[in-house]
């Protein structure tokens, strides 16, 4: 039998630009997914699909209301998206597509009403660290990013070329600079998409892209 559009998508599994949701029972959690897609490469939510790819189906009207709340009430700025409903063997799947955002960083409200920035990495939504949030604002500002390669930046680049990463405190110590100066260098290099970060043993480690 010819496979439907949704079945072909499901075969690709969950990845950086695709996420499955069995149902929506919390608009705030969906806002995190929408925000993560908008802050990264864009992506697609398939609602009514279990983590293992089995189609369970949903009540489309309720889901669409929850998506609208997630995008327009619990996201800042508002998330632009498109939504389509598909009938697959009598079961309704809602497909929500989010394009890469033009007003990054986007943030989603948590249970305390505080807005946090999320990114999509592999098949997970992760909380962005504060330096990356600053880098996203700088990268998408009208001023742009300008920097010259001075001694401290060269020290950082040399370390990253020969290691698996460095913490902020270690960079301060090796380069013999203040934390404020070190943060500014890291923010600039992340804004230029030269370095990235990972969480390792409860520490933030900065790595070369």
Q: Layout of SSEs?
A:
Blueprint: H1 5-11, E1 18-21, H2 27-39, E2 43-47, H3 60-72, E3 75-76, E4 81-88, E5 91-98, E6 107-109, E7 115-121, E8 124-127, H4 130-139, H5 151-161, H6 168-175, H7 179-191, E9 195-200, E10 203-208
Parallel strand pairs: 1-2
Antiparallel strand pairs: 2-5, 3-6, 4-5, 6-7, 7-8, 9-10
Summed up:
With 209 residues, the chain is α+β, with helices and mostly antiparallel strands. The protein folds into 2 domains: 5-128, Schlafen, AAA domain (Methyltransferase, Cobalt-precorrin-4 Transmethylase, Domain 2, 2-Layer Sandwich), CATH 3.30.950.30; 131-208, Winged helix-like DNA-binding domain superfamily/Winged helix DNA-binding domain (Arc Repressor Mutant, subunit A, Orthogonal Bundle), CATH 1.10.10.
Give the number of helices. Answer: 7
Strand content: 25-35%
Mean pLDDT score: 94
Major beta sheet, strand line-up: 1-2-5-4
Large-scale geometry: elongated
- Number of structurally distinct domains: 2
As for the CATH topology of the largest domain, it is: Methyltransferase, Cobalt-precorrin-4 Transmethylase, Domain 2
Q: What CATH architecture label of the largest domain applies?
A: 2-Layer Sandwich
CATH homology superfamily name of the largest domain: Schlafen, AAA domain
Tell me the name of the CATH class of the largest domain: Alpha Beta
**Nearest-angstrom radius of gyration?**
20 Å
Q: State the distance separating the first and last CA atoms.
A: 44 Å
How are helices and strands ordered from N to C? HEHEHEEEEEEHHHHEE
Catalogue the unreliable spans: none
Most strands sheet: 4 strands, mixed
